[in-house]
Write a structure and sequence with these properties.
single chain; 375 residues; mainly beta; five-stranded mixed sheet; 4 helices; disordered N terminus
């Protein structure tokens, strides 16, 4: 979980093939000024639970790429190391995981999953075989369908009848030109992927694109991060709308930085730039997202009502939370991933528990569930 991949992207042009809106006139601005340590009000953290994920030969997790928390179940996707979707209970006990292979219910490279809470199903896309696999809530295999070479990066079911997919489609007419533009499209499908209803195009030229990662889907509205243009978009009723604009000030990565061949990685390491804004989450009262600067992942929680923000560094330095990164929500609570060493340090300083099980050293991280009040 220590490996960091910098994905440095040119600010793209967002255009919609159908008549959809991308107006930012009503967008709310979130100012992210990491030099201002006073950009917060009094915060109260309530730690609801600390969960140690069971570690055995079947449950070794190398990287938590996508986490969903639902009822008494925790779903964790490790797409790079274990290449499996894991299921744990709320005590951290390992229950099941998907198998590797090409047989029924097996996958080679599960790349993303969607938790259908209404129908109590888990839907997983295998990037190698292009199979969409359906499991019940306990990861028992139900069925699959082949998507005929639809290269899904991530997806969200929008209501019961449509699926919004982030897909990449290279320009095959310029396949031998390494500098050629590559099209990355948002496609709106029928729920069985039989027909394309609408098509939205983003053209980031030769830069890698990551967007719609872990989208927030509330009924027929999807909320997701733009392609490093630092906008938070919503999709509803065939309309893309900029809900929030994240203002990075002088620390934002600009096209001029790339044109001038500035060493962006070094600038981020020094804290002069902010990169890799990701892990977007929303509760009724808050928006949260992570970012990378000074060789460290941090997160920012923004109060929608009070229009003020709270940096993770404040929470860490005040001893309110261990060093962690938010990976999911559960109603109005946040779920964060904590490395073992950070949890041991936090517990020793806070004297939070005398339970020796929290001091057991093995490979899997902790999860911490907490709620927040900003006064």
């Amino acid at each position: 979980m220590k490996n960091i991949l910098f994905l440095l992207l040119l600010i793209p042009i967002l255009s919609c093939i159908c008549s959809c809106s991308n107006s930012s006139k009503e967008a709310q601005v979130i100012t992210l000024n990491t030099d201002n340590n006073h950009y917060y009000s009094n915060a109260k953290i309530s730690i609801e639970s600390i969960i140690k994920l069971e570690y055995n030969d079947s449950s070794i997790i190398g990287n938590i790429c996508h986490l969903e928390y639902s009822g008494n179940r925790i779903y964790i996707l490790d797409r790079y190391y274990a290449k499996s979707l894991f299921l744990f209970d709320l005590q951290g006990r390992y229950i099941a995981k998907t198998a590797r292979g090409r047989g029924p219910g097996e996958m080679i490279n599960p790349y993303d999953f969607y938790l259908d809470r209404y129908h109590q199903k888990v839907i997983v896309f295998d990037q190698r075989t292009f199979n969409l696999n359906r499991f019940d809530k306990d990861l028992n295999y139900l069925s699959n369908e082949n998507l005929d070479l639809i290269p899904i990066r991530s997806f969200a079911f929008v209501g019961d009848d449509t699926v919004l997919v982030f897909s990449q489609s290279p320009d095959l007419t310029q396949a031998n030109d390494i500098n050629a533009a590559t099209n990355y499209d948002y496609l709106l499908y029928t729920n069985m992927f039989s027909d394309v209803i609408e098509k939205f195009r983003i053209i980031p030229k030769s830069y890698i694109h990551r967007s719609l990662y872990s989208p927030i889907c509330l009924d027929k509205r999807v909320l997701f991060l733009g392609t490093y243009d630092n906008n938070i978009y919503s999709y509803y009723d065939c309309k893309f709308k900029i809900e929030y604009t994240i203002d990075l000030g002088k620390k934002g990565i600009t096209p001029q930085d790339l044109e001038n061949n500035i060493d962006i990685s070094n600038e981020i390491k020094l804290g002069n730039r902010i990169g890799l804004i990701d892990d977007l989450h929303e509760t009724k009262d808050y928006i949260s997202f992570s970012f990378f600067t000074k060789d460290d992942y941090q997160f920012f929680i923004y109060s929608k009502e009070m229009k003020i923000g709270l940096y993770s560094q404040i929470l860490f330095q005040s001893g309110l939370l261990p060093r962690c990164i938010i990976k999911a929500i559960d109603n109005d609570s946040f779920i964060a991933v904590v490395e073992e060493s950070n949890m041991r340090e936090f517990l020793s300083l806070s004297n939070a528990t005398d339970n020796n099980s929290f001091n057991k050293q093995d490979g899997n991280p902790y999860l911490i569930k907490f709620s927040l009040t900003i006064n």
